[in-house]
Amino acid sequence: MSDRAALMDLMAPIRGRVVAASALQVVYAVSALVPFVCVAELARELLAPGPPDGARVWTIAAVAIGGLLVRFLAFGAAGAIMHFADADLQLHLRRRMAAHLARVPLGWFTDRNSGQVKKAVQDDVREMHHLVAHALLDLLAAVVTPLAALAYLLTVDWRLTLVTLLPVPLFAVAFAVMMRGFGDQMSRWAEANERINAAVVEFVRGIAVIKTFGQTQRSYRRFAEAVDDFADFFGAWVRPMLRLSGLSMALISPPTMLLVVLAGGALFVSQGWLAAPDVLPFALVGVGLTAPFLTLDMGSMRLRRAAESAGKVAALLDSPVLPEPEEPVAPEGSRVEFRGVGFSYDGETQVLREIDLVMEPGMVTALVGPSGSGKSTLAKLLPRFHDVTEGAVLIGGQDVRAIGSDRLYRHVGFVFQEVQLLRAPVAANIALGRPGAGTEEIERAARAAQIHDRILALPRGYDSVIGEDAHLSGGEAQRVSIARALLADAPILVLDEATAFADPESESAIQDALSTLIAGRTLLVIAHRLSTITGADQILVLDGGAVGERGVHADLLAQDGPYARQWAAYARASERDWTHDEEVVR
Ligand code: ADP
């Protein structure tokens, strides 16, 4: 769908009101002209030879006042209707996005996509607001008023009207010359801008390193060069354009128009083609004829930007959702099985292939393997962050796709590295795991997760709002998410063990919290520290998305394969420094 079509489509719910407001705006735009026309008509009446017609003079005065009144009423009504319609549209769009986002796969929420959501919900919807609430009506008035003026002037004298319009073709030529190659230049402009941004980001991100190694001068130079390049390019592009732009704007500016009208009028009157008072309407109304050319440009830019934003919102609303089963089934027990599972993010690169795995209830299964071997991807298929592209994941004998997400999350809990806390009270964040949980249960979970005391130390205890008066460290946030998982009490748990040492300060607290959490559950753990999984019931060594080796620690060591080598490397590193293992050093 093109951006324009997307815009029309998204605005469909308020189409009726947009039409009504536009009609009112047309009334406004025409009535805005009425007082000027009346003044001109009054002058023609009074200056005409012979005594003025009193009744006609009064009628003109009454029409002028009426015009003024209608103008204000129509303007207010059109604006009000559009603003209400706009507020409804924004609410409607944000609700639609929220409803849609609730149905996309959890795995969709990568950093990039989350940024896109923020941009769509805030910036893009706001861009559409500018269009709906302001630009559309402005644009309409900018076009209708001069058209009405043109119609009126044609009734006065069509020949002088044509003369009045003389500057327009000249303007068109100058403008066309100015816009030559605009598209190319715009993309060059965007590129140059991007280079500056990149240079700034590089400079700021690396500031500590740059300073430490005394590279400030060099690094700064790169930034300065990017800015100089940009300035050169921009100057070369814009300078001649500004000259032309000044010229074209001057051509249709009110003084030029007045000059043309008066010169033309003088000629017409001296030749006896027109009575002198008849020049007055042109002087009063004609000078504004070209005004839309000044505003149209900006209005069309707004329209383009709004259409672009609409395209992004539409794309977001179009992102594939996770199909929910029509008649959800209930898993029997919590035995987990991966049957011939294959997965690809993009439909091309195979990230996982032929994964067979059985996890009996209460069993601990560890995933190890080099970075990028597919551990996280495999683990995330169980809580259905994505759907498999081949094979099936089963819980209690049922395909996870047939279970329905509500029930699935009662069976599978997860604690991953990227902790998600909501801007809500701490208690509510923990209770996400089980809506409706009582204060006592929440506190019990927090205590078991070793975070209760820390929460009590917050300004408002459990009522403190994350991000407002509750500022938690990474490790503390992780313990809140562990409390959440504890409260949810799902029999199956997927865990990224890196969680345990993301924050050295609270490492032992997190370890303790985790041991409480995993007790008695069926556990799938992404292992980083081999020492913690020596007791696992089964270890899967992933290699390029396939299971390279599997077994218990002792057997794997005896096989003397990749696991044994990884273990040896790990043991050597641990001797040097127990916090170092392959993943950390990476
Ligand atoms: P590991 O957890 O073992 O480090 P991952 O499961 O994170 O491995 O990654 C496996 C492969 O899938 C890598 O090649 C990675 O680049 C790719 N990958 C991971 N996440 C995504 C994603 N959201 N979109 C596309 N590719 C991804």
UniProtKB/TrEMBL annotation:
Its main location: membrane. The keyword Transport applies. It is found in: Cell inner membrane. Residues 19-296 form the ABC transmembrane type-1 domain. Keywords: ATP-binding, Cell inner membrane, Cell membrane, Membrane, Nucleotide-binding, Transmembrane, Transmembrane helix, Transport. GO terms for cellular component: plasma membrane. Residues 336-569 form the ABC transporter domain. The chain crosses the membrane at residues 18-37, 57-85, 135-154, 160-179, 249-273, 279-296. Belongs to the ABC transporter superfamily. Siderophore-Fe(3+) uptake transporter (SIUT) (TC 3.A.1.21) family. This is ATP-binding cassette subfamily B protein. The lineage of its organism: Bacteria, Bacillati, Actinomycetota, Actinomycetes, Streptosporangiales.
